[in-house]
Amino acid sequence: MSRPARRLPAARSMITAPQPEAVEAGADMLRAGGNALDAALACAFTQGVVDPLMSGVGGLGSLQIYDPKTGANLVLDGLSTCPGSSTPGMWAHLFERECADGYGFVLKGGVNELGHASVTTPGILRVFGLAHGRFGRKPWEQLFESAIAAAEEGWIVRAHVYTMFSLDEAWLGRLPYRTKLAFTPDGARLYLRPDGTPKRVGDAVRNPELAGTLRGIARDGAESFYTGAIARRIVADMEAHAGPLTHDDLKNFKPRAEEPLKVAYRGRVLALPPPPAGGIVVAEMLRILEHFDLVSLGHNGAEYIRVVAEAMKIAGRDKESHIGDPDFQAAPLDRLLSDDYAAQCAAGIRRGDKVDFARMTGDAKGTTTVSCVDADGMVVSLTHTLGTPSGVIVPGTGFMLNGAMNWYDPRPGRAGSIAPGKRRFSSLTPTIVFEGGKPVATVASPGGAWIGVAILQVILNVFDWGMTMQEAVQAPRFSATTNTIDIGNRIPRRVERELQAMGYAVKRWPATFPFAAPHGITMFDGILEGGADPQRDGYVAGVA
């Protein structure tokens, strides 16, 4: 029996993201003549409305762009900074422990996670303004139309949104998200039912205050958030609650346009965000794994998992030891990515050495992503987040501020310690892959410390195993961000037993698609194929 003929027209541009409303916004922008940057920003603004704990104008992020017209390939860093009044030891007396999974630190009173003291200087909106000013095609105000409509007309709570609204990670040392939703009267009114429980799947959310905020930003530009009317409202709320964020913190925040960190892998070149973003972790793992014939080991077999997991642990250990804000601590990238070091690490894995790696710290799972390619070949990869949401909604604005102070180590003298103006390591890793100087794939993911290990496996699935992007993002995954190898529930029990026989602690996760949520697009031979991780609610949209 022959295969039915394909009836869909070939896509000339494509976008993928974890929220259906946001994908629709980006696809509409592509149809209206916008380029990949315009579409990604329209998608991102809508994400901040319909996934309000994952992202928003009060957040932070990293955007990578490739512009074929100019040949520019840049990473725009909008990772947040500690307020200027911060000091390394200001919370040392409050320290209790690290969160059990490495996502942040437990302090007495939760001051680094909930409320005004937990807020870092938001960076994402200045990144969006910088990117649009340099690469955008459509007028700035048009990028907000879908987001404003979603806020004003309303949207329905989806499965993953409800999962986050009701998330309770007290057993890990973090506050329930319900507490954050209820922190301000605006949050309770927007996101809780009358009985105080989070809104459920199918419940409607209308946020006219956020629609008004977005109209103001559309009209007055991103600077209104940092020096204009919105900045004044943020600072007034901070002053009313003894929050540390000041007018100077907002005014003086500067996004950075940087060259990507580039690493070769089997004849391709991966462009990754440099420190303090997470590209170094992916780069180091690939340098080590290039020394192995992975295909001969069998996909997700015990020996394959052992080899890849040890590379994960090595890169995680080195990140913990060496990677922070390079303005405060230089990172030994040349050594970590050198041929000699990669060969040395690979030799240890071949001998059966087990790296001792107690825990990787990283940012929280409250993150989202966009990948977009347009008909002219522009590629945009974006990951943005609220970190651990602070619960703070400035009255009448409709958006929540980030709570990324939770990422900083309250103990002085460490790579991730608190300091004024300091950026914290973030796992965000929007990635573009080049072959012969042309982009052939882009992938990014939410998922905290799991981002790097998920992106690694997608890259291996596509370039070693020949999977399509959809196959690559939905294949069973594993993770080694501690001495324990975490495996998804679709990895066979016999493989688990073999790993245990090798002396590994193995934890089986009940989720069908655990360990981050990668989304991406391949562009081989000019044919666009996308992938959306099924654990989230989004999809891939092609535009002919």
Question: What is the number of helical segments per DSSP (H or I, 4+ residues)?
Answer: 18
| Gyration radius over CA | 22 Å
Instruction: Report the major sheet.
Output: 7 strands, antiparallel
Looking at the structure, what is the overall shape?
globular
Query: What's the overall average pLDDT, rounded?
Result: 95
Strand order of the largest sheet: 8-3-2-12-11-1-20
Number of domains: 2
Structure description:
This protein has 544 residues and is α+β, with helices and mostly antiparallel strands. The protein has two domains: 13-255 and 386-407, no CATH class; 258-363 and 429-534, Gamma-glutamyltranspeptidase, large (L) subunit, C-terminal domain (Serum Albumin, Chain A, Domain 1), CATH 1.10.246.130. The protein has 18 helices and 20 strands. It has helices at 20-31, 36-50, 124-135, 145-153, 159-165, 177-181, 185-191, 208-220, 223-226, 229-240, 247-252, 279-289, 302-322, 333-336, 339-351, 450-463, 469-474, 493-501, and strands spanning 13-17, 60-67, 72-78, 95-98, 105-107, 155-156, 204-205, 256-258, 261-265, 268-272, 367-373, 379-385, 431-435, 438-444, 478-479, 485-487, 506-508, 519-522, 529-532, 539-543. The strands form five sheets. It has a seven-stranded antiparallel sheet, with helices on one face. The chain has a six-stranded antiparallel sheet with strand order 9-10-13-14-18-19. A three-stranded mixed sheet has the order 15-16-17. α4 runs antiparallel to α8 (208-220) and α12 (279-289) crosses α15. The longest helix is centred in the middle third of the chain and has 21 residues, at 302-322.
